[in-house]
Structures are given as C-alpha cells and as structure tokens.
Write a structure and sequence with these properties.
alpha/beta; Alpha-Beta Plaits; 12 strands; TIM Barrel; 2 domains; five-stranded mixed sheet
C-alpha cells in the first residue's frame, strides 16, 4: 500500500483505521460483534497535557489493544477511531470472552505513559447490517453505566442486537400508549409537620419486557428524538392525577430543560393546565440534563 493511500485510511494519532475507512471495512466484512471503548477523561487529559502527549496516549492504547487481542488469539479484530475519545472494535464472530478481555485490558492499562486513563465500554453481539445504528445503541448502553445507581454493581455491558431492538420497540410503544408506572414518595413539610408534596418517579410499563427504568429508556428516547413527547406524556399523566388528591397537595417530578426551553412545549403545558383547571403552582418541576 503506498503512503498516500495509507494516510487516507489511518487515523494519524493512533494509526488505527479512521472513521470513514472503518465504516467501509464494516460494510465489507459484516462483523458479528461490535464493541465501543470510550476514554471518559480524554477532555481532562487534553486540558492538562500537550497535543503530542495526548496523541502518544491514544497511539499507545491502540497498540496495547492490538497486542491484547493477539495474545487472546483474536488476530482478525478490527480497531478504528470514531471520534476523539471513541474506539470501535469489530469481530467477525461472537466471542464469549470479549467482555472479560476488555475488562482485563481496561484494568491493566489504567496508567498510559504516566497518565491516568478512565475507560468504559459496551458490546453488541449478533449485529445486523445497520452498523451506524449499532454504534448509537452501544452509546446508549454506556449511558446507562453513567446513570446507574451506586447499589447496582453488575450493569450488563454485553447485549444482543435483537434484544436491543425489542427493547427500543417496547419503549416506543409504551410512550405512544401512555404506559407509565409512577411511584410516589411523600415529603414532610418541616414547618408545619404536614405532608403536602409527593415526589414522583416514573418507569415505563411494557407488556413485552416488563418495567423499564429511566436509565435504560432515557438514552433511547433521546437518540430517537422522543424526549419532548415523553416529557409531555409524563406531565399529562401527572396533571390528570391532581384532581384526585386534596388541593393542598403538590407533585414534584423531573422534566428535561431541553423540553422546557421549547416555546411550543411551554404553550402545550399551560394549555393543558387550563383545560384541566389545575393551578400551575401545584406542579414543582425538577430540571435535569439528559
């Protein structure tokens, strides 16, 4: 391969496949398993070290990852760099030990060139032809790791593509059919020793897969552009419950600021409150970034 052609295929920092070349290899090789590794603290590293040192870290990670795969007999594994902190690994078969291999790699390589590196990863098996879709689903799996409750130690990092597809369909159907499951936690007013606020937590109630937690469905609805629809579905459900309790009771719940910044969303909220004759002060909205 001549030098000019090689340069168009390789990421100059890591000497792994660049995004365009890797996408072409995926279409040609049709791998059965895709993994995504993200360096969570790359922005911090970039802020505190020079470009040369950052590139050296990225290059070393690729070389060590290649060596790890060779040691494990995975000589045909493809490694490409998607964006700054994201690396994609493709295998032409479902490898039962890939999760174990990547766990070992991330534990063995916490320090690269005297710089601490913080990794996270996810794996999807039995992939189809839409590799861009699979990559986005990998990011959804990783997002659930960031949002996990500290009590949950075994969030799965490997999932089957068919399982992910079924979960997406269940999430979409639950939102479309208003299948929400709410739990209420009473909050005591310390001034008068009276419970006058209930904090509401929501789950999706899907017939096919059971209850779906926010850490699972929020990344998916974000990616599918259903965030505003979900937020309004949730708000309507809560507003419909207010006439069933005493007027001194308020409900507090989470909504995304991205929805609330939308003037048309705001208009829909107040229109629905007027329609149901509900005092807006009985809704206490907690903002969170999705």
């Amino acid at each position: 391969m001549n030098a000019s052609v090689k340069e168009t295929l390789l990421d100059q920092a890591t000497q792994g496949f660049n995004q365009k070349a890797f996408a072409k290899r995926l279409q040609d090789s049709k791998p059965k398993t895709l993994a995504l590794i993200i360096i969570k603290n790359l922005s911090t590293i970039s802020q505190n070290y020079g470009d040369g040192e950052v590139d050296a870290v990225l290059y070393t990670i690729i070389q060590k990852l290649n060596l790890k795969f060779q040691q494990e007999g995975l000589d045909k594994a493809l490694i490409g760099r998607r964006y700054g902190a994201e690396f994609i690994i493709a295998l032409d078969e479902k490898h039962a030990d890939l999760e174990k291999i990547l766990k070992e790699f991330t534990q063995e390589n916490v320090i690269i060139n005297n710089i601490e590196v913080d990794y996270t990863f996810a794996i999807v098996t039995n992939t189809g032809k839409d590799f861009q879709q699979i990559i986005l689903q990998l990011k959804d799996i990783i997002a659930t790791q960031f949002e996990k409750n500290v009590k949950e130690k075994n969030i799965p990092v490997t999932k089957d593509a068919a399982e992910i597809s079924n979960m997406e369909k269940a999430i979409i159907a639950s939102i479309k059919n208003n299948n929400l499951l709410l739990s209420f936690r009473p909050l005591l007013n310390t001034k008068n020793n009276v419970i006058d606020i209930y904090e509401i937590a929501a789950k999706l109630n899907a017939e096919q897969v059971g209850n779906i937690l926010p850490r699972v469905y929020l990344p998916v609805i974000n990616r599918l552009g259903l965030g505003r629809e979900y937020d309004f579905t949730l708000l309507k459900h809560i507003v419909d419950l207010l006439p069933l309790v005493d007027k001194s009771i308020s409900f507090t719940f989470n909504l995304s600021p991205f929805s609330l910044r939308d003037p048309s969303f705001q208009e829909k909220i107040f229109s629905y409150l007027d329609q149901k004759e509900i005092d807006p002060s009985r809704l206490i909205i907690q903002l969170y970034e999705r």
